[in-house]
Amino acid sequence: MSSPTKDRPVTVVEIRGRKRRDGAEPLVMVTAYDEPSARIVDAAGVDLLLVGDSVANNVLGYEDTLHVTIDDMVRHTAAVARANPRGLVVGDMPWMSYHLTVHDAVRNAAALVRAGARAVKLEGGRSRLAVIEAIVAAEIPVMGHLGLTPQSVLAMGGYRVQGKSADAAGALLDAAKALDTAGVFAMVLEGVPDVVAAAVTEAVDVPTIGIGAGAACDGQVLVFHDLLGLGSRTPPKFVRRYADLAGLATSAVAAFAADVRAGTFPDDTESYHASEDLRHALGGGEPGPG
Ligand code: KIV
């Protein structure tokens, strides 16, 4: 199975076919929440850009993802889409945007598509089948999300690895098969033991994309701020940090502050200049204090 060409947008059909057991290269998904982050991750060649509801924790300063609304997600999805990325833009459906009625769920999924998403993601297993089927029937591709589903933080009593007992692992496997049958084109597996993710990956026809789910998945996803070292929290153990951008950014801003305080910013090349006539009309003095 070949990877999509570099100049053509990645399609849902291509993603759906990317099973490693069929020889496909692992999928790469990274979150993006605005135009600059979308440009950066797309230039790096990711397959999918997830406009995650984790915008809540990573950008908007909330403790959890329960605070973002469909309007927030529409705004951030539109910003990501303005980068015109080659990777597939997946808009995350926030808590309460698909929990009340199927009708609401389809309308909210459509709002994300109109903002620029080319697929939506939603969390949950068997209890979400009717919603998934209705959104798929409206011609909107759906990505599933099983295991540690952050929108269930209150019900789970915290962020806990899921599927750790034989019963729980069996239920997760069963839910994954049901999502596959309901028509998802891929599914995220978050915070589950590696052997459980491996069993799910083997059991379903669509690709699995893991986060804290071991190496056997068909792809991996990380949060932009975690992998670049931009977050304020200590990242979970499954995060590999590839940079310390927060450290770099703080040093850069501190250097700017020092230059301003020392009077060395701006210099002549960083200033606009007027004609001699204007200089004379203003009193002929040198610009600036002193
Ligand atoms: O919102 C998000 O960042 C996610 C990923 C953890 C998969 O859903």
Task: Outline the structure in words.
The chain is 39% helix and 12% strand. The termini are far apart. It is built from 12 helices and 8 strands. With 290 residues, it is an alpha/beta fold. Strands 1-2-3-4-5-6-7-8 form an 8-stranded parallel β-barrel, surrounded by 6 helices. It has helices at residues 12-16, 35-43, 55-58, 70-81, 102-115, 129-137, 153-156, 166-182, 194-203, 224-227, 245-262, 276-281; strands spanning 27-31, 48-51, 88-92, 119-121, 142-147, 186-190, 208-211, 219-222. Bound molecules: 3-methyl-2-oxobutanoic acid. 3-methyl-2-oxobutanoic acid is lined by residues 31, 50, 52-54, 92, 188, 190, 211, 221, 223.
Average pLDDT works out at: 95
- What portion of residues is helical? 25-40%
Q: Estimate the global geometry from the Cα principal axes.
A: elongated
Poorly predicted runs are none
Cα-atom radius of gyration? 23 Å
Q: Any ligands, ions or cofactors bound here, and which?
A: 3-methyl-2-oxobutanoic acid
Strand content: 5-15%
Query: How many H/I helices?
Result: 12
**Could you give the count of β-strands?**
8
What is the element string, with H for helices and E for strands? Answer: HEHEHHEHEHEHHEHEEHHH
